Every structure is written in C-alpha cells, then in structure tokens.
C-alpha cells in the first residue's frame, strides 16, 4: 500500500476492545461503528479532493484502498461502480483483491467464488490474502468442510500459505472435531521456513483442545505458547484466560503465576489482564480468592478499574452474599474515574437496591447518590427512596429532579 492510502488505512483500523462489565454493549457498538465510519469518511474525502487537484496522484495501491473504503462507507454497489469505472490498465491484482474483500465482507459466497475464479484466470490470485479471504468467508458461513480444499488448492497453485492460512484451517478442523488432521497441519506449518511461529500459533491449537475438553493436550500447547510470549500483554491476557477456562486449581495457579510474571515485566498495568483471572476464580466459586487477588494488587499501589470490583460484586450476588456484593459495588463506584465509560450491571444494581430498602435510609441514600454519578436516576431508585422515606418526601422529589434535570 502506498502514500496517502497507507496513512489513513492505519488510522481507520478497528481496535479490539474488552467490553466493560455490565455495560450496554449494543449502545457502545453503535457508537463505535459510527465513529469508525466517520474516521474512514474524512480521509476518503480528503484523498479524493487531493487527487482531483493533482496534489497527490493515486498509486494502484491507493486505488485499491479507496475501493475497499468505498465499500465500507457507501456499500457494495458504490464499490462495484468504482471498480467498473476504472480502465483495464488500472484494474490490477490489488484492485481485484479489494473487490473480493468487499464481496467477502458482505458474505456473498457465489459472487466471491466467481470473482476469485476471474482472478485465477487472469493470474491475479497469486497471494495468500485472496485465499485467506475465501476461507474466512467459509468460516463465517459455517462451511468448515470447504476450508481444507481451499488450502490444498492454494498449495497446488504455487501460492505459499501464511500463518493466517494455517490458523484458519486449524480452526476449521477444530470446529469439525478433526483433531488428527489438526496436529498434522501444525507439523506442516512448523516445517515452513518462511513462517515465524509465535504465541498465537500454539494458543490457536490450545484453544481448540480446551473447547474439546482435552485438558492434557491443551496444557502441552499452552506451555509451548508461554515460551513464545516475549512480554506480550495480549498474549498473557489470552493465556491466563485459557488456563482459567481449564478451571482446576492447578491451572488457576498457573494462570496466577503467569499474571505475576506479566506484572514483573509490564510497562503499563492494564487491569483487564488480572480481570480474566478474577472471572476464572469467580466462575469456580473461589470468590474470596478473587477478592484477595484484587486487594493484593491494590496494596502494590495499583488503582483498579470499576469493572474489577463489579466482577466480584456480581459473584457475591450470585451466592446471595448481599453484604459483600454491596461493599464491592461501593468500591467499584469509588474508582469510576478509572473508566468513565463503565456502567454497573442493571441486575446487580436492582438486587442491591431491593436489599438496601430494609437496611436503613442513610445507606440507601448514599448508594443512590453514588449511582447517579454513573447512571441517571430511574423509577426503581426513586421508588426505593420513597419506600425508605429518606428525609421526607420533599427531599426525595428534589433528588429525583436533580438527577433528571427537571
């Protein structure tokens, strides 16, 4: 990719986030998608203007990126129109590849296959990217049985599979319980001199074995993945998650050891990493151990995000330990500044409010006052305040007006 295209392609890439515990994910996703579309539109407008003015002539790579962006922003019809307006000399392999990507993104199997065949006939299907796109499409459609055939065809046509090609095919075997073929494919991948094996290679295999319930096999590849980590925070996060999912005491202790190793090497403390282990402990009913881990981290001078306390609060609530759930939720609200986008889980809030109605006016009023800093006061909170008769009906109504700006 050349010039201007590379710059805004990089800026418009979707970031993978970890959802907030109890957050309204649908609202977050809609807002995020809107922001991403706007991030894409603006550079596209600027690049079109610069091209028309002759300030920055488009290279073939830039045209391919623009086609892809047009498909994302304006839809498939606009992308096809752009493609067919180009002259034959301008329709190079990258342009054809970009249109294939649009078809794949829309989930159009027949169009993708037909277009891919044109690319083969013209000698344009010479990179692994196009084959990977087709395999990704089959993955999305649940047509896992077709993926190994694409990989075989790729090799037959003299196109070297890359690490992505192998991982997509490995996952297809995992989805079909073809575990014998899985390890054969891994052995083939390990023998390829052009492929650099990293931690994701072995976590791909480990994850398949975890899903299959084959603990011993999973542990073998988790250990191999550990050897490839190289202080990668995402890698530690994923490995801790896999060990936690195995769930026995030994695996949870291994996850804790990994967390401590990460803590000793990290430059920036991201609480989403220990949160994975907190979830693992809570899912196994080891809530006290989860709380001890969190408090131990705080003693080391780290300030948690509210999600961390919310995880433990939800676990205590499930065990009907309302006193503990309440305290943990208060702790979460106390550190809300560490994640301004955090919202408490409505079911947790509702349960605590119901419990507090019989616990006294002062505690309920204080809790609602804290809640209103992260969510708007609602009918349920208002009703709880009335039933507790906090400071008289007049003050309750005043609190309601204050939080709803009426």
TrEMBL record:
Domain of life (superkingdom): Eukaryota
PPR repeats: 127-161, 270-304
Residue ranges, compositional bias (Basic residues): 7-18
Molecular function terms, GO-annotated: mRNA binding
Region Disordered, residue ranges: 1-38
Pfam families hit by this protein: PPR, PPR_2
Cellular component annotations (GO), alphabetically ordered: mitochondrion
TPR repeat residue numbers: 306-339
SUPFAM superfamilies for the chain: TPR-like
Record bears the keyword Repeat: yes
Biased composition (Basic and acidic residues): 21-38
Entry keywords, A to Z: Repeat, TPR repeat
Membership in a protein family: Belongs to the PPR family. P subfamily.
NCBIfam families: PPR
This protein's name: Tetratricopeptide repeat (TPR)-like superfamily protein
Organism this protein belongs to: Actinidia rufa
